[in-house]
Amino acid sequence: MASKRTTRASTRATKSSKDDITPSDDHHDDDDDDNNRSEAVEVKKPVRGKRTAPTSDGSEKKAKAEPPSRPLYSHWLMKSEPESRIENGIDVKFGIEDLKALPGQTGCWDGVRNYQARNFMKDMREGHQAFFYHSNCKEPGIAGVMEVVKEAYVDHTQFDKKDVHFDGSSKPENPKWSMVDVQYRRTLRRFIPLAELKKHHLQHSAKGGALKNMALFTRARLSVQPLTSEEFDFVLDLENKESI
């Protein structure tokens, strides 16, 4: 979340409300806490039979040495706290109305202190769209849409000793943390609460559907999450439908 200064928009959420599944992981190193995963782990049995002989040009060895490429995303979900919460004397509140009120309706998304969330921001490109998600509040959920207008650059708050997101282990010559600039696009016709999204997720997990693997439920702690185009379009269409 951010302070009331008009130059920054932080995404940290350290406490969970009774509706929000888990707090974001911004002030912790990446972990693989996938307690919310609905998929069962598949145990692969060894394949019996002859092994394939390696090719003479060594292409098999090369293929094993190269890890699979990361999926490319162009849609995102970014969490921030819309309700006042004082941390080290600073109000970290920053909701969609706060973004809308900034000059040019644009702010920097600072304060992310999780490596995976930071890496997702580094994958963002100008023009990518993101849902503004209200987190750590009475009714968490998706409030609106914003757009990435400046790609990842150094987050200055990591060096500011007066800032709640100061990181003494990060050095100017080798900064750890990045941020992007986002611009308000619009508020949804209706707020899409987490409880409603969870119902769709459970239905899709059982029968198949767009939200089956949505990161909001499989990696709930991350404050910056990728969305597939299918996930983004499905959620966006919900604003035109009645809540289930």
From TrEMBL:
Keywords assigned: Nucleus, Phosphoprotein
Residue ranges the record marks as coiled coil: none
Biased region (Basic and acidic residues) positions are: 16-27, 35-45, 58-67
Recorded protein name is: Thymocyte nuclear protein 1
**Where located?**
Nucleus
| General function of this protein | Specifically binds 5-hydroxymethylcytosine (5hmC), suggesting that it acts as a specific reader of 5hmC.
Give me the stretches of Low complexity compositional bias.
1-14
Region annotation Disordered: where it falls in the sequence: 1-73
InterPro entries found in the cross-reference section: 5hmC_binding (IPR052181), EVE_domain (IPR002740), PUA-like_sf (IPR015947), THYN1-like_EVE (IPR047197)
Specify the EVE domain's residue ranges: 75-237
Q: Which GO terms describe its cellular component?
A: nucleus
Q: Which species? A: Muraenolepis orangiensis (Patagonian moray cod)
